[in-house]
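Retro notes, item 3 of 5
We never archived the inputs for the coproporphyrinogen III complex last cycle. Fixing that now. Sequence and ligand:
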Amino acid sequence: MPLSESPFLRAERRESVPFTPVWLMRQAGRYLPEYRALRARHAFLDLCKNPDAAAEATLQPVERLGVDAAILFADILLVVEPLGVGLEFAAGEGPVIRRPVRSAADVARLGPVDVESAVGFVFETVRRVRRALDGRVPLIGFAGAPFTVASYVVEGGPSRDYLATKRLMYEAPEAWERLMRVLVDATARYLNGQIAAGAQAVQLFDSWVGALGPDDYAVFVLPHSRALIEALTPGTPVIHFSTGTAGLLPLVRKAGGDVIGIDWRIDLDAAWAALGHDVGIQGNLDPAALLGPPALIRERARAILERAGGRPGHIFNLGHGVLPDTPVEHVRALVDIVHELSAR
Ligand code: CP3
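Structure as it came back at the time:
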């Protein structure tokens, strides 16, 4: 879909002014007091599996911040739970996979999964959120890209160097291929289910693929991310996000997406030039800037908008998720600043 037809650029209430839409990656979360209140009542996975509570968590940042899109409250790892790898969210530790997939034999044990019935609660959340939003802002669904999801499944949790993942890739390339095919198939079903339920755009998070060099990305990742994007229901814009990939951007673009999401480690104008101006771009404020005072936040936001040069096809965002210690007033101020500066 041409970017000019994307729901972001058609937000009705701003039709007549040049306008840079803003939503924030991981805009739900612990920095919001109302989210902490919800979490006091539900464990994280229970929250994801309860469509009423998950819809509430999705709407909280929309009400509180005035962002231009809602992002579904869910997680990239929900799709691997039915693979039987033992997904848990341990307090303070982030995600844990109790039975990591480390060898060809482990990969061979992964059976086909009935994704649609295993994660039906996510689709129900999408339907409830769409009803509650009633057209105010579009709803973005999401999933993890195959590399990033594989990295959790193989490492067993977050990692610094991704050595178990790289070892599997190098030592057992056929097993790696099979793991990627299993994840592409499950993720395509997961995203197409969200789209069928009403998600108006989808974002693919390849948060950790910046651990790879260009040759490894081209061989071990690109064909699979591309196969996933090609398997998605046509007509829904796809945002393809990664971090630490300044040196991989042309390859990330080759894998696909209507909009490429970037982090702050490259200037937005340099990234857009590397990608080509015929693709949309999303980014790229360092989330840590929100720890600074409003005057600094304003300066940093202004610099990004200047680098975007008023071109259509820029979605303002953080280069990664909102950090838990961020003052809510700073996040709210950022949204107002971007709206003010981009409407000029
Ligand atoms: O508002 C939103 O942006 C929607 C919600 C969202 C969550 N996870 C909820 C969540 C989104 C878009 C994600 C994606 C996700 N999950 C990614 C890709 C984005 C990124 O930040 O790179 C990744 C790598 C994950 C895996 C994951 N889930 C991690 C690493 C963690 C721990 C994070 C932490 O801060 O401890 C989670 C848990 C998680 N997912 C939380 C939230 C709000 C915090 C859980 C809590 O309430 O304790």
